[in-house]
Amino acid sequence: MKKDKMQEAGKQEFILKSGLEIHQQLDSHKLFCNCPGILRKDKPDYEVERKLHIIAGEGGEVDEAVMFEASKDKKFVYQGYYDNTCLVELDEEPPYEINQEALKIAVQISLLLNCEVLQDSQIMRKIVINGSNTSGFQRTVLLARGGFLDTSFGKVAIDYVFLEEDSARPASSQEESDPELENSVSYKLDRLGIPLVEIVTGIMHSAEQIKECALKIGEILRVCKVRRGIGTIRQDLNISINCNGDESERVEIKGFQDPKIMNLTVEKEVERQKKCLKDNSCKKEVRRSNPDGTTSFLRPMPGAARMYPETDLPLLHIPRGLINEAKSSLPRMKHEIKAELSAEGLSEELVKLILDENKVPDYKELLGVYNNPNLIAKMLVLWKREICSREKISEKDIGKRLTLDVLESILVLVRDKKIDESRAKSVMAEIAGGKDINSVLKLESIDNLEDEIIKLVREKPGLTANAYMGLAMARFKGRVSGKEVMEILNKIVK
Ligand SMILES: [Zn+2]
After folding, report:
1. Residue 388 domain-assigned?
2. Quick one: DSSP state of residue 380?
3. Distance 235 CA to ligand 1 centre (A)
4. Residue 373 structural domain
5. 6 in any annotated domain
């Protein structure tokens, strides 16, 4: 009865089923060779032409999407640079062992997404037919699964985390707008092989939840060692609807650059699928996200037949040690740092300034010199600013004069009761005004260097003689000779 009434009113009840796939580049060298993966704007050093040939997947079948692309019989031109692409990108040399740093970053991301990391995994080849991989496949490995994220709409499952290599990028902006339609396509090899994580979420039921989930994953990625800027993160969306009991086919929408159009795109795609359900024209397919929120057909949905094992590489084993190391050095989320700074007694304003100005590492370093959180926070973010506006000194100049070393010297004087805490600000102002630090602080030569160095070794135990040397030279800058310091270190550090 209810269903009929709804239809009478011209309204259709539907349930949205949508999952996110997020691809993020990691900030490390390439995944299966040692090339740096720097994107270049200058002219390439060489060009190579290729055509792709169809082969069957692991199950012996040829994928529908593969057939579709092969039917276009395209020619591919690859542009490379001698100093940042090698024979691995050209598929003329087997891949090297997987990049251990990228592996560790990806494990950290997996742990922050509450996933179980798989210790043994088969690296796979995923057939890619638009020419963006010279080999015709992309290497990918399932790293972790079974995680979750809390959102205000409830838990969202994180189904899988993959570690994979990025593809080559279209060489010109014209092709970037539509590489699928060209008969000859040029790609730059500089992006090919850059490590990527692919995060696949479980099903969500509203556009708002999808957006919140995407933002939360973005927050997690940003505290890890990932690349920043346009093109370093790509979001795809899987959408299907259940309309009055009828299921539409799942559609994959690729290439969200702007999360702001996500809600609009979901809305428009739902309308399109409702219409498809009505005229029975639903297809599984991959579509492209357009800036106006609409989508357009890109290619058929690739199936399972496009995966087969990478036989050039052994089974990937992730030792327990690597997982433990990733765990113990897990980056902390912004809200955790906030809570810690507040617990150290800093006001809300100081916490905000320290986070906004990215001063947490400096704050921590100075805290190691003298445990006085409020004084340090004020020196780092509050007084500098006050001095700037009062003395009419540019931010650039004050940054050059009140370096971390200078602040540390002032702090040491306060700690050692050579000046009173209340003088710290005026000392800063004098130095900011252009006075020489030594004349302001009336630094005298160090009477007993050996005692000072023993003190330094006790403050930071367990380092090498060279590391102490660096610390000593930074602390006693201009007042001691390196030779003298090394002689003392050789006596006291084994
Ligand atoms: Zn390379």
Report:
1. yes
2. I
3. 26
4. 332-441
5. no
SS3 309: strand
Separation of CA 406 and ligand 1 centre (Å): 43
Q: From the CA of 48, how far away is ligand 1's center (Å)?
A: 15
Which residue(s) pair with 133 in the sheet? none
Distance (angstroms) between ligand 1 centre and the Cα of 76 equals 19
In a domain, residue 327? The reply is no
Ligand 1 midpoint to CA 98 (Å): 12
Given 295, 321, 347, the domain boundary residue is 321
For every residue of 214-280, DSSP letters joined together read HHHHHHHHHHSSB--STTSEEEEEEEEEEETTEEPPPEEEEEE--GGGHHHHHHHHHHHHHHHHHTT
What is the 327 CA–ligand 1 centroid distance (Å)?
A: 29
Residue 331 alpha carbon to ligand 1 centre in Å = 29
3 state SS of 147: strand
Residue 3 belongs to a domain:
no
Compute CA distances 283 → 44, 163, 192, 269, 276, whole Å: 40, 29, 31, 13, 8
Mean pLDDT in each 10-residue stretch from start to end of the chain (494 residues)? 43 83 96 92 91 67 68 82 92 95 97 96 89 91 96 95 95 56 82 96 92 92 89 89 86 79 86 88 85 83 76 93 93 89 94 90 93 95 90 85 91 83 88 82 64 89 89 74 82 80
**Cα 57 to middle of ligand 1, angstroms:** 26
pLDDT of residue 18: 93
225 Cα: distance to centroid of ligand 1 (angstroms): 21
**What is the whole-number distance in angstroms between the Cα of residue 374 and the centre of ligand 1?**
49
Of 165, 166, 167, 184, the C-alpha closest to 175 is: 184
Q: Are residues 193 and 60 part of one domain?
A: yes
**Do residues 67 and 162 both lie within one domain?**
yes
> Ligand 1: distance of its center to the CA of 139 in Å?
14
Please tell me the distance between residue 97's alpha carbon and the centre of ligand 1 in angstroms. 12
Q: 410 with 432: CB under 8 angstroms?
A: no
